[in-house]
Amino acid sequence: MTPLFAVTLDVGGSHVTAARVDLQARRVTGDVARLDVPHTAGLDDVLASWVQAALEVAGTGPVTHLGFAVPGPFNLRGGVSLMTHKFAALHGVPLREALAARLRGTPLAGVPVCFGNDADLFALGEWWAGAGEQQDLIGVTLGTGLGSGFVRDGQVVTDGPGVPEDGELWSTPFRDGLAEAYASGAAVTRLAQAMLGETLSARDLAALEPERAAPVWAAFGGTLADLLSPWVAAFGARRVVLGGNVSRAFPHFALSLQAGLPSGTLAVQSRHFELAALLGAARLSVPVPDQPV
Fold this sequence. Notes:
About 35% of the residues lie in helices and about 25% in strands. The protein is an alpha/beta fold. Helix 6 packs across helix 7 (about 250-260).
């Protein structure tokens, strides 16, 4: 079978990351390109950086599509950014056409362009080629905020039973506020302040003596379980896959999280972290039958 590749990009607020993904091996091949481009940059600078990153990893051989993992709000089908809080220069621009114009005369000329939400593609990448092991799952990213993606039978699900609006958990009601206030780096810091009297990041807390940090991590894991359990049960998720910087401390809160989840659901740490969304973007248009992992 002729090898097939996708070129995928993950658009962050300060940089863009690009990779070439082998669709049959389900892995990133070659070097990953990372270019600094602030979300405050002008349209030409943003698009030039995206194109440069894509061409750096394009390599040789057939490329099925360019897959972009983008933050929201974004009209994925139309390829139009609806963001106003960042990437203001992209607002309302038909990006699929704008990229096609800039790719003329390059090895990626005429390659279809696909867009997906970055949190959804994190979850999809872990389902397809990572810790999700192709089980129905909820992907959760814990960092400065709370990201989420719901995947059933290899498809991102953004509505229906057990799924919050647009698949976004961060804004769902929880306790006396919103879920994000209880499932993020800031939530860990607040717990540490309340229980230890110190202002600590998740990384700082993970470096403390285990006996001092353990009660904070147990409280965080228990809270996360309380937040996720109703969604896990309603969606029927068999895996909860955790990514983002806070999840690098997963061994510290895994037991309390697992203890609070419904029976039959396993909480696991991301296998790919920053690469997961790039793998998910490759899955946006897989033209060959899935092969056994």
